[in-house]
Each structure stands twice: as C-alpha cells, then as structure tokens.
Design goal:
The complex is a heterodimer of chains A (560) and B (206).
Chain A: E1 6-12, H1 16-27, E2 32-35, H2 65-70, E3 97-98, H3 126-135, H4 145-159, E4 161-162, E5 176-177, H5 184-196, E6 204-205, H6 239-249, E7 253-256, E8 259-267, E9 272-280, E10 286-296, H7 300-308, E11 334-343, E12 349-352, E13 359-361, E14 378-385, H8 399-404, E15 412-420, E16 429-437, E17 443-448, H9 453-472, E18 476-482, E19 513-514, E20 517-522, H10 537-556
Parallel strand pairs in A: 1-2, 1-10, 2-7, 3-17, 4-5, 10-20
Antiparallel strand pairs in A: 6-13, 8-9, 9-10, 11-15, 11-18, 13-14, 14-15, 16-17, 19-20
Helix pairs in contact in A: 1-6, 1-10, 4-10
Chain B: H1 3-14, H2 40-53, H3 67-78, H4 81-102, H5 111-145, H6 159-172, H7 175-181, E1 192-196
Helix pairs in contact in B: 1-6, 2-3, 2-6, 3-6, 4-6
C-alpha cells in the first residue's frame, strides 16, 4: 500500500475537519492517507505540560522576550505563553504578509487546533443559512438547516457535547450529554434576564465539547480547565482523543506527519485530481501520492493556499479559481468587546472545581420583530466568578496585604463578551505573495481583510446591550469595554473557497466538491458562505461527515 | 482565579501592567542581555524586599517561596533592555533610599525600618508611575492609531513597582503560595457552583 503511494482517498490536514474526514472515509472501507504538515503529537504521551503546576514553569506561564521576537503574530493576544508554546506554529518559520493587520494563529501538528480550540459547540439556525439570500450579502448557501440537522446529531453523538435543551429557534438543541452547571450567580442573573425580557432573551450554560459522562474509552471531564495543554483524560473532543483512534481502529488509515502538500495534481483530460505532491518537511524530498478522491481540510486559509498553489495552464489562478472567488470573502468573528461588573450578596457561596466553559446568550438582534441599523447579529459568552482579594488601604504591605490577598473578594464579578457575525465581502481577500518565502521556499499568504461599517455599527450594540442586560440581571457598577479587534483574533477563519449554487460565483457546490474538479472536496472553514455568529467548528464536523458520505456513494456509483 | 485574573489583580494593586505577563505590554525593540548579572548579595536583598511585602505569618512568606531567585529569571528573560537597566539601577537606588531614611543599608535595617522604607517607596512610585503614564500617552496612542497596540512597549515603571509585581507574581504562583497560603486542587473531579463559603476560608489558587 504505502509502497506504491496509491490510496483510495487523501486527506490533507489532521485538525477537526481532517480528523472527521479520515474517520468517516476509513469507516466506510476506504484506504486513506492523512497528510499532516507538522510533527506528530501522541495522545496523552505528548501532552508535555498537562500536569505541570504553575510553579514548575520557569516564568510561571508568562512570555519571554525571545518568545515575543519569535512569534510576531501570536504575541498579539493571549495564546503566546509558555504553557502551550508547542501547540502553535513558529511564526518566523511560516511568515505571512499583511496589507491590512491580520492575526493568524496556527497549529501545525497532528491534531491541529483541535487540541487548542475553545470547544464551544453550537448548531447554526435556519436563518443563518438564509441570511445571504435575504439581505443580499454574499451568495446564497446551497444548503439549508434541514440538510444538516441529522448530520449535526450524528457528529454530536460521537464528539460528546454537553449542554442544556432550551427549545429555541435561534439556537437549535442538539444531542447533548448532561449539562455542566451554571454557578449560583449565573443562575440568578439568568432568572432575572428571563423575567426582564419576558422570555425573549436567554442565558444558559455554554455548550461545549467536554464530556460529562464516560464515552468511547474517554474519561469524563475532571474540571481542571487545562484543556488546551492536551487532556490526559480525553475529556474534550480532539483529533487525538476521538476521530484518530476511530480511524486507526479500522486498519485503513496511514498517518504521515511532516508532509506539506504543495499542490493537488490535476488531469485536464478527466478534469479530476489524480493525487497530491508532498514536500517532506524534514528531508525536503518531494513525493507524489495518488488517490481517487482528495479531502482538503488544511484549515481555511491553508486549504485555499493549496488550491492556489495548484495552478495549471487551464487554471492559472489555481484549482477552483474559475469563478474568481477563490481567496475572497474572508470572514472571522469580531469580538473583544462587552461589559462586566460586580454582583453583591453571594458572599457565603464560592465554587469548587474549574469548569471549562462559561455561559452563553444567543443572538437576539435582527430576529423576529427586532430591526437594527445593521444586518445579522451577535451572541455573548462569559460567566460569573468570585475573584481574589478584599479591599485594603492603599500602600499597605506586610501581613495585612498577604491576608487580604489570601481570601476571595467580598463580591462576585460577572462579565460577557460578544461574538459578532462578519459579512462576506468580496474585497476581503487572501492571495499568494511570491515575494516572500517560508522556511521551505514556498510562497506565503498575503492578508487584505478588514471589518466595515456593518461590523462597526454592530460593535456599539455589542457593548451597550451587554451593559443593559447585565444591569437588568442585577449586576452593579457595570462598565463596557472594547479591547480592540484585529481580524483573525477570533481564530475562526472562514470563507475563501465558498460553497454556492452557481459555478460562476462559488468555488464549491452543495456537497463541498470543487466545481472545477469534482473529486476534490473542501470541508473546513474555507467552504463557508457566511459566518453566523456562533462558533463554527461543529458545523465543519457536520459538513465533513456529510460530504464524506456523499463522496463514498459517488465512488460506488462510479461517478468519481 | 486564572492566570490572567492574577495578572490583572497585580496590575490593579501596583498601578502598572505586569511585564512578561500581559499582552500588549512587552515588545522587543532591542534584544536584552541574556544574563542581567545578578549577584548572590542582590538576590539576598530581593528576598528581603519580597519578605517585607509578603512576610511569613501562619504560612511561609516570599523568602520561603524563593522569590529573590525568581526575580532575576524574569528580569533576564522577560524584560526589555530598558526595563532591565531600570531594575538593576533600582537595586542601588533602594539601598540609597534606605541610607537616607534609616541611615543604614536595607540589609542592616530592622523589619520596621524596612517596612517604613517600602511604604515611602509606595508613595514615590505612585507619583513616578503617573508621570510615566502621561509621558507615554502620545506614543501609546500613536501605536493604537497604527492599529498595532501590541507593538507599544511601556517605559519602565518605578523600580519598586517592578519588585512588588514580581513579589506578588512569584509568591502567588509558588508551591507554598498556592498550596499553603491559598488552596489548590490539581484534579477537582467535579464542579459545584454554590460551594459553601465561611468568612476567612482561603481562596483557590486557580
């Protein structure tokens, strides 16, 4: 098998989407090679900081000047610190250029960002799939909620999503494991919101891919809240904890780390891909792998990079470029603004355990009768907690200072941060920048992306609604904040190879097939036609599983 | 309380963001020296400064948490050259201030004299930092206008502020700080969102 380099299917990338593609295709009997550009990370064994305590880190989890210099992108936000440095790409080895400021936080290793993701898992609602058609931004999705509903159920059952059933159109319920608990303050605020907004706004536990019961040889969450260092219990969904073991159990999977796919090989006579070219990241040798189908799951921008770098005489701008939309319509979720304040009256209560999720407040703007001066909407994530340290006179040092900082604060605090939908603008693009090369001499990506009026108007509501709701929820001294948002910081890159109904205006069809090469499927964030305001990974899982079934059926019918 | 909250708490207490800890505040204009050159005497001095801020009470203090040895690691690895220089000069200035106020070096002073000196430095640092912040404001805004706030590197705060920040950070992330002065549970195994609390119960370390 591996000797002749020929497989039934090639999966490019091993993150959330790639892992799902490998699982589904191998379980359906295909011989699959999964190509990962970075190193391998073995489940549990390679989670090197999973049990490291704060005092065992030389800089107590901080960042050094050397790190700041080596990670010019990652340094822009919280991900750069010594607790999980291995889980991020070395920016200097893999640069990108910015026509406009863009933060690109990447994980180049087996498992990709499935190891470091925020695990928030929400279904899109029926309006999300109709939004482009209704307000005219972007192109219409070629699918509707009903096309994906059963696939959401399918992936939820396997991934293990904890959450509460709320019966809301705006955030459809799923197949949930028992929900984690809101704490006493969150419950109180939620009840006040429900009464104040007459059941039109809702707050409940954030749905997340943390299991609350044993599941497929995985131990339920132990409430350490150290997920992104890798969980030795398999308490959250990742490639390593879930999809990879399932794929390996079939005996049909070959995993090849250090494999940078440089291009998809295309046969202009059959109008299909024949395989891929791989650059070995360690030896710099080039290999070819052949297959009947190719799943491109390299993370949104890198999937599009592979397509762009697969230019041929017929498609000089890259495979899938016939519509002129390849690389366009970049989206992220804009956030880093909201409000927070203090809550009085719960000084006899505290928490035990570190819950790895917060609360969620689903979208309420521009649905039903609500109408704003912008389109689409936003949801909130946040939570309540009891901080540390009671007030003491200024300039106190010594035993009094020590005592004051050794106990919880008198009051609890509660804060919420909004995550807003970003529209698909044609002029928001990524493109190949051939003037700059990465460590392997490959061209890099240029980012030319910004938020516009719609997002800027929305941000005002994102802050003011947060204040109003917290105050209605009984929170005192509420302050709004806008910490400044640079596109990419949401780490929810979407678009650049969108799905659509028309090959003239989209890169992929309703089954994630590249219009120009039907045996090539793109099922990660690149395929997204709009962004919704909810976290996207669960939707990538559902789309990938759906496309995999379609691909195998088409193969059986002899159509691919 | 997670790490980010701890950093925020220290920032509020000391009137300045924690170097090497928080985003947007440590850049890299000039690479700093790989060895800032701390002597054994200086580490002993820093231990005593830290112990004056967080002393042993019913539980061990900063000296037992080896905060004096922690500071040089942070200053060497996480501070910019300018911040390093300010810290190193600060060690000398601290002793000069001690001689002025107490007519003896910090190491020769008794606990009350040490305490009085640091309280006087608290006042001095507050005014000093206010001026630094005002001076930095136009430069900070320049970076914000360029949409590159994370490239702004703040001018060094008062040396005492740096020492106090490192004391609090070092102590409350140390093993004794986290497990004896605070309480810590590596694997809680469950979550209780209305856990009973009686006045005086220790806070969770994280």
């Amino acid at each position: 098998m591996a000797d002749n380099n020929t497989y039934d299917a090639i999966v490019i990338g091993s993150g959330i989407s790639g892992g799902w593609a490998a699982k589904e295709l191998t379980e359906k009997g295909l011989k699959v090679i999964m190509l990962e550009r970075g190193r391998d990370i073995k489940h549990v064994k390679d989670y090197v900081t999973a049990n490291t305590e704060s005092w065992e880190f030389p800089h107590r989890g901080g960042r050094t000047q050397k790190m700041v210099e080596e990670y010019p992108a990652l340094k822009r936000d919280y991900p750069l610190n010594e607790t999980v440095l291995d889980m991020w790409v070395k920016d200097k080895e893999c640069p990108y250029t910015e026509t406009k400021p863009f933060s690109w936080f990447r994980g180049y290793h087996v498992g990709g960002r499935s190891l470091t993701w925020g695990r928030q898992s929400y279904r899109w609602n029926k309006w999300d799939f109709e939004a482009n058609l209704k307000d005219g931004h972007g192109v219409d999705w070629p699918i509707r909620y009903d096309d994906l509903a059963s696939w959401y159920s399918y992936v939820e059952k396997f991934a293990g999503i904890q959450g509460s059933k709320e019966g809301l159109d705006v955030l459809p319920d799923g197949e949930f494991m028992p929900a984690m608990e809101m704490n006493c303050v969150e419950k109180d605020v939620a009840a006040r919101l429900k009464a104040h907004y007459k059941n039109m706004r809702h707050m409940f536990i954030g749905r997340s891919a943390n299991i609350t019961e044993p599941h497929n040889n995985r131990t339920n969450c132990q409430y350490r809240n150290r997920c992104w260092r890798g969980c030795p219990f398999g308490g959250y969904f990742s490639t390593q904890s879930a999809t990879l073991p399932a794929a390996e159990a079939t005996g049909n999977l070959t995993l090849r780390p250090f494999s940078i796919v440089t291009k998809i090989l295309y046969d202009k006579n059959t109008k299909k891909a024949t395989g891929v070219e791989v650059l070995d990241a360690e030896t710099n040798k080039t290999y070819e792998y052949k297959s009947k189908i190719v799943f491109v799951c390299a993370s949104a921008f890198n999937s599009t990079w592979v397509l762009m770098n697969s230019a041929t005489d017929i498609w000089p701008e890259g495979l899938g470029s016939s519509s002129g939309e390849l690389g366009h319509n970049v989206m992220d979720h804009h956030f880093r603004c909201g409000a927070g304040g203090k809550v009085e009256g719960f000084s006899d209560k505290y928490v035990f355990g570190r819950r790895p999720t917060g609360i969620y407040i689903p979208r309420f703007r521009n649905i039903y009768d609500d109408k704003r001066d912008y389109v689409r909407g936003f949801g909130y994530q946040g939570g309540a907690g009891r901080g540390r340290g009671v007030e003491i006179a200024e300039m106190t040092i010594g035993p009094d200072l020590k005592d004051a900082l050794s106990v919880p604060s008198d009051n609890w605090g509660m804060g919420i941060t909004a995550f807003g939908e970003m529209l698909p603008y044609h002029e928001n693009t990524i493109s190949l920048d051939k003037t700059v090369k990465d460590k392997w001499g490959l061209p890099v990506l240029n980012m030319n992306v910004e938020i516009k009026d719609n997002e800027i108007k929305m941000r005002k509501d994102m802050m003011e609604d947060a204040k109003e709701m917290l105050e209605a929820g009984g929170v005192k001294n509420v302050n709004t904040y806008d910490g400044g948002y640079e596109v990419g910081m949401g780490i929810h890159e979407m678009g650049t190879a969108r799905m659509g109904r028309d090959p003239k205006t989209s890169v992929l069809n309703s089954n994630n097939q590249v219009w120009d090469a039907p045996n090539v499927f793109v099922t990660d964030g690149a395929c997204m036609t709009s962004a919704s305001c909810v976290n996207p990974s669960l939707t990538y899982m559902a789309l990938t599983a759906r496309a995999a079934e379609f691909a195998v059926n088409e193969l059986k019918k002899g159509n691919l | 309380m997670d790490r980010r909250e701890l950093l925020k708490m220290i920032a509020v207490l000391t009137g300045g963001a924690v170097i090497g800890g928080e985003v947007f505040l440590s850049g890299c204009n000039a690479p700093a020296k790989s060895d800032a050159g701390f002597t054994t005497e200086q580490i002993a001095l820093l231990d005593e400064v830290a112990e004056t801020i967080i002393p042993a009470t019913k539980t061990p203090g900063a000296k037992a948490a080896k905060v004096g040895a922690f500071m040089p690691i942070m200053v060497t690895d996480c501070y910019t050259q300018e911040q390093q220089d300010a810290f190193m000069k600060g060690i000398v200035s601290l002793d000069e201030a001690s001689k002025k106020l107490n007519s003896k070096s910090f190491m020769d002073s008794n606990p009350q004299q040490r305490h009085d000196l640091l309280v006087s430095l608290e006042k001095e640092a507050k005014e000093f930092n206010k001026k630094v912040e005002e001076k930095d404001k136009p430069r900070r805004e320049e970076f914000e206008k360029k949409q590159r706030p994370y490239d702004f590197v703040a001018s060094p705060r008062h040396y005492y502020t740096m020492m106090k920040q490192l004391t609090l950070l070092g102590f409350f992330t140390s093993k004794t700080g986290m497990t004896e002065t605070l309480r810590h549970n590596a694997v809680p195994g469950k979550y209780d969102g209305e856990f009973a609390y009686a006045k005086g119960d220790k806070a969770w370390a994280e």
